[in-house]
Description:
Layout: H1 4-16, E1 45-49, H2 55-65, E2 70-74, H3 80-92, E3 99-103, H4 107-111, H5 124-127, H6 133-138, E4 140-141, E5 144-145, E6 148-160, H7 161-166, H8 175-187, E7 194-195, H9 201-211, E8 216-217, E9 225-228, H10 233-247, E10 251-252, H11 259-266, E11 272-276, H12 279-285, E12 297-301, E13 314-322, H13 329-338, H14 343-351, H15 360-363, H16 366-369, H17 381-392, H18 402-417, H19 423-440, E14 444-445
Parallel strand pairs: 1-2, 1-3, 7-10, 9-14
Antiparallel strand pairs: 3-13, 4-5, 6-11, 6-12, 6-13, 8-9
Amino acid sequence: xxxxxxxxxxxxxxxxxxxxxxxxxxxxxxxxxxxxxxxxxxxxxxxxxxxxxxxxxxxxxxxxxxxxxxxxxxxxxxxxxxxxxxxxxxxxxxxxxxxxxxxxxxxxxxxxxxxxxxxxxxxxxxxxxxxxxxxxxxxxxxxxxxxxxxxxxxxxxxxxxxxxxxxxxxxxxxxxxxxxxxxxxxxxxxxxxxxxxxxxxxxxxxxxxxxxxxxxxxxxxxxxxxxxxxxxxxxxxxxxxxxxxxxxxxxxxxxxxxxxxxxxxxxxxxxxxxxxxxxxxxxxxxxxxxxxxxxxxxxxxxxxxxxxxxxxxxxxxxxxxxxxxxxxxxxxxxxxxxxxxxxxxxxxxxxxxxxxxxxxxxxxxxxxxxxxxxxxxxxxxxxxxxxxxxxxxxxxxxxxxxxxxxxxxxxxxxxxxxxxxxxxxxxxxxxxxxxxxxxxxxxxxx
Length: 446
């Protein structure tokens, strides 16, 4: 069920974007237009959109092992490019694949438009034990399940061993210790201790949740009602903390994922990098950890607010969802559950730093757990940091207008970093902005 106002807004957005509905000729639901070769021609075929770099291998592995259904895979674009095509197909009522790769925080946005299928009745019980409760919560809306978890991003603190050694810093275990260490390095004439990029609002959301915030409460059983709590005390505390680090000159405000930021990481301009388990792969691909900074990085658990009650949080992660345009939802669900779930595909994914796996077959595999990570100079980062964080993660509730919220958060972080508002004021303004947007979309905000 969806609200009439939300539907109208979605239709207007699609029209305003000048998007053209994906026809079968463009690789939408046409099973004849596959990137991969289907060898079992006598089996039914389901179509799929996904952008993982090793999807060719993943699909081939699934098709070779499966005698019930075959997957026809196409990469129609990564992230936003694929979502634009999917949104157009939703508005047109045709052109969507049977299975689609979706970042977990996008699931409610498509679910409220009836674009995804609840797959809990299509074999979820058979694979439920393959993933942790937090992973399942991230792909659920209320009690309904709209995706199969594939990868995630438990948060940790990457740091420069050379900087920590030079200034006699021990990896901080609390955020209070983090600030103390940052001040010590600054007082000694050292580099910035970290960075607050306005373009990573999902990271800030996770850090607020770690403090106890619950930004949204939403259930598909009550689709016209949503809880929005963006200026509770926990949210304000976290924003005020980071605003204080900026004000004291302890951290930078450079947008992340930019050439300038990466150059700073390589040159030792930052002592720490708060990021997710996928960061080592990203940094390696960006040229970090090579040349003069080879072997200088290590990783430690994310600092805590209360070390006696640690909370682990996540940034990022994707799933395979079944679309409501599928005429074979049960077979599509079999594919969603089976893809990227075999040992060979999972091993290829984590070995080549494509995914941080959520499937417990990989997450608890001694080869994965005990891996000596080259980026971290041989540190057993999975055993020491990432796997415990992933296992302790409890999941989060996302909103049906996640992109609007992230854009609004980006704006407030920018103004906060510029000193225009305090962290608490930024939280109040964010609450007002997002509440207004939710109301305009037809939600009752509680």
